[in-house]
Structures
1.
Amino acid sequence: MMNKLGLIIVSVILALIQTGCAEQSTWMSLNSSNPRIIWEVKPQADLENITGEQISTPEFKMSDYVKGVVPGTVFTAYVEAGIVPDPNYADNIYKVDETFYNRPFWYRTEFELPSFYSEGKRVWLHFDNTNRFADFYFNGEKISGTKTSTKDVSGHMLRSKFDVTNLIKKSGKNVIAVLITDADQKKTRKAKDPYGVACSPSYLAGAGWDWMPYVPGRLAGITGNAYLVVTGDVVMEDPWVRSELPTLQKAELSVSTDIRNVSSSPKEVVVSGVIQPGNISFSKDIRVEGGTTARLSINKDDIAQLVVDHQKLWWPNGYGDPNLYTCKLTCSVDGKVSDVKEMTFGIKKYEYKMVDNVVGYPVLTFFINGQKIYLKGGNWGMSEYLLRCQGKEYETKIRLHKEMNYNMIRLWTGCVTDDEFYDYCDKYGIMVWNDFWLYVAYNDVAQPEAFKANALDKVRRLRNHPSIAIWCGANETHPAPDLDNYLREMIAKEDNNDRMYKSCSNQDGLSGSGWWGNQPPRHHFETSGSNLAFNTPAYPYGIDHGYGMRTEIGTATFPTFESIKEFIPEKDWWPLPTDEQLKNDDDNVWNKHFFGKEASNANPVNYKNSVNTQYGESSGLEEFCEKAQMLNIEVMKGMYEAWNDKMWNDAAGLLIWMSHPAYPSFVWQTYDYYYDPTGAYWGAKKACEPLHIQWNASNNNIKVINTTAEDLKGAIAKATIYDLNGKEVPAYGQTKQVDVAASNIAEAFSLNFNPFNLAYGKKAVASSSTGASKSASMVTDGGAGSRWESAYSDPQWIYIDLGKEEKIEKVILKWEAACAKKYELQVSNDAQEWKTVYANKDGRGGTEQIELEPVTARYVKLAGISRATQFGYSLFEFEIYGEKPKEIEELTPLHFIKLELIDAKGNLISENFYWRNGVRDLDYTLLNTLPEVALSCRLVDKSMSDGKMKIAVKNNSETVAFANRVRLVNKATQKRILPIIMSDNYVTLMPGEEKVITMEATPELLKGGVSVLVKQYGKAEKNKLDIVD
């Protein structure tokens, strides 16, 4: 995967970076990226009766081995060797005999002691991660456990460190042998015994999920960095820098580390340190007895300089800069350096509050550095389903999350064990919701003590990272009481409660998980429901409550056509599976990539039918994919914007399921496996921008969202409405000045798409209502989702005050299911004396259009006589019409909404775009009738050596150019340029409009020049510009 992406993995980084703490003593990488290191892999069964002591000698020759990949898995070694066909493609991975890999394997390598070694030094072997069990041998000796023990290292997050000083050969070959044993559970794909938590601590998705396949071997291997370190007799372990903020202008730092003396005699140790920026120096002495470990702590009482004035705080993305500090620690004995460690840390303060919503349920709310933070982000399962993501590739993935304007990633069941993930989250200001390895199906682990040891090592290893915002015990459940208590107490001790420990990922201040099937934007504005609706008692959901802090909500997400070609055989492209196949077929290749029953949560039938009904039936896969991107944009944007709409009025944040893909699939992603951004990426990027203007698809309300730490004052909110041809219709637009406080929202105005409705925005009075969210005013707000609901009794009434006498010719009643069986329409000029102008004794609900004899009145009343259900009268809209004013132009049924937010200096800070059908909701098929326009593309600026450029795309025609997609290909290779960071895509251009798009890619990908391809929606893609390097 990494070679295809052209990403460079630097072996130095792989060996150095760990836990935000880089080993600065003399070291040597034992990873496969070191050309002097060759790992040999072979099944234990093929080496029957041969011991680890024998295998770890220079005389042993491992014939017919497969070249190993470290870090990596056993299965990955066979893939890289070409023994297994590309597991990404078609159903190849499902054809592999998993039993071959679901058994123990030997890893073996040889190395010579590096020249930097000097006599009297200590030599250490480090293995950051092994899965699931490991036994270690070196130069003919067993160095883990006891001579007769097995499965000595248990768990994928446990670091292994061995002092091999007395076994090292100063000349000639040194040999390492590692026996990796796979998990005990679910030895075949179809086995019924649980994998999941039973195998924990491990990568819980290794036996398959609804977004990645069962992996032969279940990710067994040497899965973390391996390296050799040379030190003196005294070493530092798990150094930690804490920060406290008595005020935002003053930080108090403390430094601690374990000091281990591996010699037999006591040592007088001097630990000195330097913190940058600030050049803060300190030093402290400690005596450590032979063969013991002592804890050294240094704080403001020891060193006054550890009180830092006007410090640079670490902030999450959008709220400030993610400032980082380094601390270099050196421990010396008798004036000689024995060990050096360097840590990266951030000065920050996390706080958490439970804030009750309108129905008294608590909502977990995050604060950092005293600022309330609105959470925006996504869930992350595996970095890559075969653990092939390493080093620098993490920067690409985390950078894409930053570019989507996210500020949090949830590590679902803690399935990332690579320290680089956290390093780049620190760098880009992405907070991490950090799960442990438990999920809802089971919460009893097979080896509780191994789980605890791994959890302890995880916290010690990662606690320097400022990005970690919360520790979470289990996914959608609570850990068993013993584990739950252990985790809570351990984190209080080892992380000093600097971050919250929370037992469950979706309850206790959180609003549940889901739903996961595709739903249109309006749905999310109108209901907050999730799986906790089935709890006893049920979590309360409504139009104005129940959004809360949601850690999972998602939808199927079709990738681009260019990406689908990479993993679906051409013979299977078209037609798509039938509804019946999507529901029940196990074996078609679409299901193998989770468009089918394996991902039933994503409701693929609904997704396919939504694309077809909203955008029209397609004639082939490429056309369907293009239309699917439109659905992706609107659905993803709608989910985030619905939560934005309720910000702090119940909603505290949203994490979608999922933001990052581990496998080529059709579900749970924003960008796809090949880094091609889907429409979901662009929908998320838009909805999550720090300063944002948005439209409520339910009630046509326009709001401005501010998720920054600065107030927005004197801004202009503007809505422009265009007809299908791209002509502005001024009567429907609005402009208003708006102020928005930091980390808050403000209502600008509501759009009226029906100016002929005399009742719009007018005062409504009712005999009763069931709450503020169902008050009488809901029937005149122009929204299709809000409604008035009366008390559950007869009679009931509601009337509209038109403000003055009007000529009335028609009334439209839009009922919810709870309609009136018998009712009358009455008019009045004083709201005292009423005249009946219409009676219905057999009401059927739905939308009733009632033509009246023209009558002049100020008040119009609906008088309910008897209800059709046991519920109250429930009415969406009460519309009143007279003669149509000739000066107001009617909109085409399908039209466009362009929103702009302009700051006080005249700078455009947010632009948002929607398409709407005011006659047939969600029918966008008229987009297919738009004519082809004359598009042009010009180069604005380029710096190919930095991989950066700007291009401008212009619509030179007199009609709208809808959803123009821009992509780059390399002129020399004709391959897609991915990954690439772009400022915008799928842009709609009105007549004469031009937009500038910025782009950034690895310079290596641009060598040979690039072609800029532009595709107008529904038209052929064309090469619009060639750029030479």
2.
Amino acid sequence: MLPYGSRASVPARPRRAPPPPPPRVNQMPPRPQAKQGFFFATDQDSSNAVTSPLAERVCAECALHFEDLFLCNACNCVFCDRCWDRQAAHRAQRRMAGGIRHEKTDLQLAHVMDGVFSQPTDEDVYRQMFLDDISASWFGVKKDGGRLIFLDHGRYGEVMAKTNIDRSESTFCSEFSVVNATQDLRTPSLVSLVGQTGAGKSTLIKLLVDLQHQNKTQNFGAPVVGMPGKDVPTSEGVHLYLDPGSALSDAPLLYADCEGLEGGEREPIGAKLGRREFNYEDEQCDAAFALRHRHASERELAWADSAFRRSREFIVTNLYPRLLYTFSDVIIFVLRNPRVIESVFEQLVIWAAAALETSSNQPALPHAIIVLNSCEYDSTNNTWDVATVTRELLQSLSDTIYLNPTFQKYIQYWQDRNKDIDTVEKLMMCYYSSLKVVRMPSKDRPQLMKRQTHELYNEIQTNCLFARNRKAELRMLLRAGELQSYLQFAFEHFSSRLDVPFDFVQASFLNSPIPSDFGGSILKLAIKMVEQEEDPDARVIFSKLSCMVASSIMLDSVRHKIKGNADSIFPLYIQHLDTALDDFCDRHWPCEFAINRASRTKPSRHSIDSQPGPTGITKCVNVRSGHGSKGHQLRDGRVFAAGDYVSDFSFEKNQTEFQNMVYFRLEHLLNLLAIRVNSGEAEDVAAAELHRDDVMAYFYNDGPRGGVRSVHSHSVCFCCLFEPPEHCLPCGHILCTACIRTYGRFKSANVIEMYECPLETNTAGRYRPWTIYLRPEAAGLRVLSLDSGGIRNIIQLELLRLIERQLNGKLPIQSFFDLMVGSGTGGVIALGLGTRNWSVEECIEHFENICAEAFSHRAGRHVPGVGWLVESISNAKYDNLPLDISLKKAFSDDQYLFGGPRHRGLSDLNVNVALATSTSAGNGVVLANYNRQQTGRARYQFYRSENLAAEFKTWEAARACMATPKLFKPLQHSLSKQSYLESSIHHQNPIHIAMNECKALRSVPYGVSEHPDIVLSLGSGLYAKTPNAIGPLTLHPLRTFSIRHRAVKIPEYRISMAAHCERVWDDCINSLSGSTPSSAFVRLNPEIPNGFADFESYDSMKILRRRITEQFYDDARIKKLAAQLVATLFYFESSNLTREAEAENFVVKGKFYPALSPPVANNHYLGKILCRLPNETPEVREVGRFLKTRGNGHAHFLIAENPKAPQYFEISPSIVDNMIRFMEFNMDPICVHLSSKDSVLRASLLLEGWEQNSISGFPRSLASQEDGKASKCPGRRITV
């Protein structure tokens, strides 16, 4: 092989032959190699290099070393600046064959070109390059017997996660903005390169990457260029590479290298070599190791039902275009032979036509760039100008528009849709936003090659900027995490169906949910009304909606005590009305263009499964923001006419009308309310009855399809439109706490019975009372956090059993926690205790059964030489089926994690459960059985579907928690279009999630302490010794089985993970404020010997249980913890206190109490100490017995501002006796003396031996409770 820059004939050799080359010194930027993932180490193996003059670091003329050396591409020699002009060919400015000049090329540029174009001829070296490039695999297809499996290797998520960390750690703050660590706000652009096999796509990407990489400190991956002399396709599937020039910017470029067209059924070299070396047992293959343990997902291609559809050519020409055309901002079509330019335009049209009708509501069409590779030299500079070349090529094709059969076919297609096409450019603009042509010279012109590469790069940047601006105008610009969700949705969609278009609007419901404020609630209700109408009319919908909106405003104003008439109240809410209407018109109301095709069939489609459709009225389904330049589309994706968005209903035309309707109806309702209040009715009761009987009774029963029970939402309360829904009723509706309080009957202070659903007032029949338990507003939260640990989580259950034993064995552990957070198998335990109400003994039994089934070995795994093959093919050590069956048996197949029909027996549960999981891209996701307000930006997504259809079943949530990479396959949740796995290493100890969820669940503080009452964190065992050789786990967002970028054995990984969980706990404790009592945070993580119990060793469970029992049976920590938990059952509720100046009395709950001292001298607060447990329940009796045993008749409550002057309030023997005999806890009101209004109090339960433990909600200031009640924000925005 001739080295870079060599020619068939060369001029006479220089006068002095160069000396033998010295050892190669790495003074130039290293050539990037694909190695171990994203930023790669440099491979200095000399076997990869081809003998080249670049290795000679001396001048070929004077044989001296110089800093500035130049390569002559024609002479293939290196000269210093002084010797350059001494060469006769240089002085005479001779040209080589083909008109090639002797160009003076900087040695650094020559080195880059040498790395791009000089490829090794040794197959072993070449094979290693392909193995190193495995980590760049993004998605592709593999054969599994008679099936085709779509593989997503998680490359996109890996690239974005790694660069997000690098942006945070970057020191180039002046050049790049440092990213917010909590959420990735970047907007990446996808640039796809397509073309025939051998056209030079990989070479072009490598050229773009390497030229941009020259001034970067990190190494960036680049494709493997085709091996010289080989005519077989190089790589399979689609690979993804990052542009170094924009890697740390707000808009990074991603290059997608697509498998070549017309490659036939020959297996690409990369697939062949990679499969040969992809040995599961080979721990030396770091790239293969990393790829196997990356978050990958598999989906069977349901439509691959014939040999033709399973062919490689079908996949490359039909599946890949649908994905790349849909999401790319720029499509680059690479051509090797410029003389066949006409066929290139044909391929561009055919390739785009295969994908045009496979998506709807696409915000913008991609831009197209044609790259003509290896163009012949031309002395005219205009021949290399992008604008000139584009114009001349389009002019040269002007005559072919009526002669080319392919062009004629697609011209006819668009003429049938009332669009005139008379030039090739107009035809191209039907499929692309713009078209440019860039010529690239042969490798003999390095300077020109560099210039043209920069021209191409500038065109890419310009087009991506146009695309991003267009999407931003339409409010469809996707951030990095949002694009990942859309991609996963598309992967799932096109794996199931090829003939159904991917709808961006439908995907947005799952990936970019509507904000859950008042405006978002109005919008969601409007969308629900559209879905329930066979022929919806937007004006009629918003006319009906205005009454419900006005009534909701009236109810909210009463709840928040906003005084005034409609003129003063309505302006507070008008912004929400405008936002809802604007969003509805822009993103949810379809184009009204329609054609009566009664006498004609529907237009044919581009796709391969074209079938004539029925006749009738043809309507466009695209919304304004997604209408783009495709024209009018049917629901199945077919374009039936050209034209822009058409609708008589718009924000500009209907804004004033909608505002007026809401205003006048609000005014009418306020007048009715005033009449009822003047007649003696309470304002809140009158407003609630007006809202229910005069508005909702008619609004929800006015003929919706499916009746009122078809109107559901998991993100907004359809009763008041203001608060997030929290409480599921037997009818399936979910109401917020405010509406439960409004329409329920209080059985006690925190127990409400619902006799009917307010949305179903006029429906026949009512259900039996449905009991709802509310968390007292004056009480704090109690949190249980459970680490991941496989079968070792039996340790946690045994610890909980020992705690229950200290509580006399009859108080369920669920009574002592408001929030349970679990990771991995800890999530399974949290689900069993919190959603199924299992006792600890029942949970142990179910857990053992699940583990026994889940960790049963695959058939053939222990057969020598076969085990690794079985695991490699299945990509999992254990079979999913036994695990799925055991989880369905334990959690049932019909119980949803949130929403759905409610079963009797589970209605009295009041435990919130949160599960730490992650998507296939490594993004953290929390699955929960509750709803809550969003507080700030978190490092994870709180998953809450809009309706029951996309909600998780309880067993599915447990399955996601147990999907440990390489042990089990991910959970494919088809309804949410995502794959879910066990949580990332960040959340193996989920304490940070627990603390964040604790903050999010806390409502407006009524003087309650900001910290939880108690946080109990249970580990899964800490090994006695952690090898010093294994450093701390890198905090990489992706879950990989690597430590500091080196492969380790799984046992070592588990040991280090256990230590990492301890460090996470230490970090949490160290981050607490100084006012937070450390005694409220308890961590139990027993020490176990190394190798005593493996992550998946079922046989060691009984031994573990016995060991934990022996270790903690009489442990003082367990006894202390039991007393702490009992103390958190009690809380102090300050009465609504006012001071009567003349009588000097306190008014408490409508009763007068004499002041115990002059009101001017001291501050007094009256209130009661209450118990969380409802009276008349067996749990109250057991608490009484505990107080009798541990208090020994001397239990007191201690409240102190100053430790030297405490106030004692006795729990008298009669109170304890009432608890035991009548299951009631009732203490008389108490008066607390304070030296100042803002004094901070401590309140404790005092047991035998002066053992003190804080009761719920303390320490705190009682004054802040009164202030908190007054500071509730009327009509506040909520976000879910």
3.
Amino acid sequence: EEYSNIESSGEDLKLEGSIISLEFAPLTKGIRVSNIPPGTTPDAIKSKFSNPKYGGSKVVDMMLDRNNGLANVYFEKSSVVSELVKNEHIFQKLPLTVIPYYDEFDELQEITTKTTEFCGDYHLEPFIMDYIINHQEIETKFNFKSMKYDNSTFHFTKEFDDSKLAQEFKNELKEFLHSFVKDEVKIPKPVFEKVKEAIGEKKAEFKAEKVDFSFEGHRVTFIGKKEDVTLQKRSTEATIDRISEEAKFETTELVIDDRSKLKFLNFIDYFKNVMIEFTGVKIHGMESLSGKLSLLGTAEKIKDVQLRILQDLMKISEIDVKMSDRQLDFLKRTECQIVNDELKKDDVMLMLRTIIGAVGAKSFQAKIMILKKCDNTEEKRLLYIIHTKTSEKSIRVDEETACFLAKSNKLQEFKREQFDQHLVLIDQELTDPCNIWIVCEKSKMDNAEQELANLTNEKKIGSSIFRPMDPMTVRFLRDHCWGKIKEKERSCKAEGITVLEIDSCSLEVKGTQAGRKDMIVFLEKLAGNVNFKAYPLTEPGMKKQISMEAMNVIISHIENIYKCVIEKDIQPEETHEKTKGDGGASTMNLPYNSMSFISDKDVKLVLGHRIRIIVGDLAQQKVDVIVNTTNQKIDLNANACGRALLKVAGKELLSECQKIGSLKVGDMASTGSAKLNCKRVYHVRASPWDSGKGAQILGTLIKKCLDQMEKDTLRSIAIPAIGTGNLHCPRPEVTKILFDEVTDYFTAHPQSTIEEVHFVAFNGDQATVDAFLDALQELRIKMILSRTRKHGKARIDALQEIKSEILRKETRPVLLFRNKVVPNAGSQSDVTFTEKHDGSLELWLGSRNLTVQIVCGDISKEKTDLIMHVIGQDFSVKGGVAKALIKAGGDSIIQECKALGKPALYSTQYSNAGRLAVRQIAHVIAPSSMKVADLKKCLATFFDDVSTKNIAKVSFSAIGAGAMGFSERQSADLIFDNLSRIAKSKNPALSLIRIVILEKAKFIKFKDATKAYFSSGGATSSDPQPVGACASHFIKSAKSVGGDESISIRIYSDDRGKIDMAWRELRRKICQNIDEKIINNDVVRNFTDRDLEKLLVLERDNDVKINVDKNKGMVTMEGYFADVATVQERIIKILKDVKDNESKVPVYWDSLPTEKKFHKIPLSTSSKEYKDVETAFHKTAPNRIVRIERIQNGEIYGHYNLKRQAMMKKYGSNFADKELMLFHGTSVANIEKINAGGLNRNFAGQHGKI
């Protein structure tokens, strides 16, 4: 500080004539460390000076000079240097010199250290010095500069910086050298060898304590640390005393021949207790397998011990224990330890004795060994302990699971794990592998049983049915994916997976639950890739060829080439079948000739028995017997039928049911009626349908009920649709069985006292009501056809009567399709329907290219490509569909949607489907306040968008008919307007639409709305045309006589390109056999409606398209070449017949006696002839028609026919417009004259103008 001003002035100091410059050294971050011991590592220096305890900190760099014992150490902060320099530092008991280190002033770093060399001599015994040099590494320990041992003197030199440290070292070395000693113990000569042997056995102990020993003469010498030598000396002296004492004893040998008894005595520590009791006696050889014991002691004591042992051997009792082979195996594996640990405290042992059988077979017997006699109570206690420790129990599994566990490694791994970790034995029976046994301590049994149950449940071989929506998918998987399925099956071998084809519609997957789930997912993935396209066989000749046996070979070839399957959907309309044979095929085998309709729902058999259809509540029926369908416990609360009866009957009926107890499948029980309006209640137990197996049981139950009525002399019975509720039996099949069984019963028992059978359909179950009404409709048709068992006119009239009957019942046009009366498509001529057993409705649009399925179910379980729903811009979950999707799919769906922000109105946004089975969800954005126009725009935008994507299968609900408040009809109109448009656009991707409705009531309403939509020709159509009337064929001069577009084929493949290729090849093959013929004949101009009907039959029966041009007198035939030839021959015959009959009366006239000049034939109101006249009349007159009569006057008809032929020759092709129908009004008095002689033009003007 006193030089600070001078320094700042820059002046120099003068000292004795010399000039000295002073300046402050800069702050440094390094130190110089000296006096570092040799062998020190850099890490040791870093550790020393990074320790805050000594003022250190983090070392950033260091340089070590091992040769000179110097190091430069650098830190992050200079303040560390100041702290380290202030402190003293000792390292490995040596002082370190620490000073600041300046790189700029190397001349300041020179450190002069004064070194003192210290020498010393110590006298040590050679053995001790050898021990120290060999064991203590003295040179390294004390870092001598030099050392040597000579003539019992230890010389050394060592350098020190400080003389004080040298004195301290001298004291430390002296203390170290004097801590080692040599000592010896004398050993008496008689026991020297035994003592030497005993000490030798303790060699490891001496080595561990670093004590050396050696024998010289009869002495043992020890060298080592003083305290260690003292300890070993005392131990040796004690050994000498013990061996010397034992040398005074005698040794006697005792042999125990029974090894089991010897083992038992050792187990209970018997010999140890004897040695405690008889002090001074030692027993050797107890553990020897030879059974030879050495008794060491005085003669008197040895004699006493020997006597005691022999007496106790005689006292040992053995008790046989009955145990199973599994328990014996458990004891053998555990060496009886679990049991004996418990028995040992009672001086009891359980032992397994080997028993040799007659043929040398070895077995085991469990025996209790005890050193006393025990009474029955004690024996029972011991047996209880043993059986508690070896409890056994079996779990039974099914045969398939047992076989799988036996083959797989899972059970073996489980057995090893249970035994190794828990001492639990698991054993599968050899004779009956379905039994798996557990043997363990009773306390472990519950847990072991649960573990085994978990394994068997996990590995239980169960069965799952894979039944895709379209049965043809199964066929495709079988024909073209079976290799992949079998490969997957092999990969799932550990799960016991096998895939079997049980029928044409489904596959059975057998295996563990996890394996089945994995395989089902795999099959669903394969099935999801399968698409189909429907191709209608509209060209003549196609239907005939596709149904021929030879075509199967062609189809099979195409299927193999293009890896596809082809379904022949050959299902002609029922109306066509009903015109053939003796009434056509029937789904019900009933005595139609002996039946008649009393009303729409009331049928009477010939002997007076009646069958009635009742739509209402079963519990309100006033009959003698009400049938209740129930379960095993006859629980009236188990199904809707029972609950309805219980509500009216009261608890009295419930009490009677409880008295019955239980009911087997196929049985019937009778009770009183309580408060019901009947005399008895018959309770029946049906079975599930099970692919038709339940049908026989249902038929048997109906017979039992009717037989019981005869016994009870009761006359009327009400039967519900048994099995269609909880058992899910198909309604059409149930109604068929009910009709068949009742009519069969009355046929077999014509004198039955039963008068009425009521089939009751609950008015809230529209599907059941429809099933009964459909059965009645079929019955009505069959009854009409059964009355006419011939072809020709009577047959056609019967068919016309059926059509008229249906038309009278319907307020709109209808189409008969597959046994189901479905509203006709009207202007949508390319729409076909079918209603399935489960009530679902299936439609085909656009020549069957687009399939629409309307089903009752949960939309969140759909497995199509995509689910669509309508939602607001904020993605708030309000509607039932949205809630169901989020609940089943997870919150990730809505989170992804909200990340989209606020999408544009009417746009379609796509998101993941979470846990749902579909691939994605389409969210159609709608305004918060919806109108019909908004919903229409939403749907139109969605369908346009989805048509541009490669999406084949889409599911959605009855859009708008839920929370939005629109009616089912409005929803159906909007949906099918769009679907019809999409179908016509021939979108190559979209092939399946599923409309899924959860609530059954809404489902039924939507189906009705769909039927109404197409019945009215679509929402925009106003001019529906009826189908079923034949007159339309005769309106134009050139018209196809018939045609059936209900036949088509479907081609399935997982490659859409191959579908079209397969169709083109199939069509090419079919067209090779199509031929066309033309007949030109003027007689064609004279064809009547009856002649055209004959061509209709020819066209339909032969799959030939027939076009008739009456103006040109030409008939064109196109179709399968063989059919064309046949039809050509038949038409030539028809032409001949027409020409031959031109002068005769019409063929449809009734054959009557010819005495009268004319006959009046009343026409049936349902006949076509009546309808034609009625229609023509009402075109110009509104009068009510009382009756229409055909006047058959041969003479007048002959005049008419001649005039007609003359006009035909005159006008040629223009004749069709020249012949008109005239309605002439006149007085009653003139009618008979006109009928007899025709109209007389002389009276013109008097009775009317012509």
